[in-house]
């Protein structure tokens, strides 16, 4: 798969899949890789998107456009100063959701297990 095809796949996944989590190599103050999530809103006739940190009270930036090689973001601060940013599709790495293994004994009605004590 060449670079152009990979960009198309990443762009389509960001625009269409719900609750997709990704990283792009940005680290926080503790040196951990930040995870981001795409939020889509269709309150009006036009879809609007935002990229949000995947934390409880994460910062967000609005999506200006999904271009051919990168997504362009913007936000305004309290003094109405506009800040712009770009995320290259080549830097995006998707995070697979963790699958919790369930205990088959918990499915038995009325079962009280000793392993949770």
Characterization of the model:
It is a single chain. The chain has one domain. A hairpin with a 5-residue loop joins strand 5 (70-76) and strand 6 (82-88). It has one helix and seven strands, in the order H-E-E-E-E-E-E-E. The mean pLDDT is 85. The chain has a seven-stranded antiparallel β-sheet. The protein is extended and about 60 Å long. With 117 residues, it is mostly beta strands. 10% of the residues are buried. It has one helix at residues 3-16; strands at residues 21-27, 33-41, 48-53, 60-66, 70-76, 82-88, 93-94.
Shape by Cα distribution:
extended
Question: What is the C-alpha radius of gyration, as a whole number of Å?
Answer: 19 Å
* Sheet having the most strands: 7 strands, antiparallel
Summarize the helix and strand pattern as letters: HEEEEEEE
Helix count, DSSP H or I runs of 4 or more residues: 1
Helix- and strand-based class? Answer: mainly beta
β-strand number: 7
| Content of β-strand | 35-45%
Q: Give me the side-by-side strand order of the main sheet.
A: 6-5-4-3-2-1-7
Mean pLDDT: 85
Number of domain modules: 1
Low-confidence blocks of residues: none
Ends distance: 51 Å
Helix content: 10-25%
Write the topology of this structure:
Blueprint: H1 3-16, E1 21-27, E2 33-41, E3 48-53, E4 60-66, E5 70-76, E6 82-88, E7 93-94
Antiparallel strand pairs: 1-2, 1-7, 2-3, 3-4, 4-5, 5-6
């Amino acid at each position: 798969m060449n670079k152009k095809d990979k960009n198309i796949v990443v762009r389509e996944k960001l625009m269409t899949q719900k609750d997709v989590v990704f990283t792009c190599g940005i680290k926080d103050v503790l040196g951990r890789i930040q995870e981001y999530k795409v939020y889509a809103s269709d309150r009006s006739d036009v879809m609007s998107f935002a990229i949000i940190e995947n934390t409880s009270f994460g910062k967000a930036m609005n999506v200006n456009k999904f271009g051919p090689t990168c997504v362009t973001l913007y936000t305004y601060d309290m003094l109405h100063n506009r800040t712009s940013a770009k995320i290259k599709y080549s830097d995006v790495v998707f995070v697979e959701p963790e699958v919790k293994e369930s205990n088959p004994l918990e499915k038995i009605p009325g079962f009280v297990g000793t392993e949770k004590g």
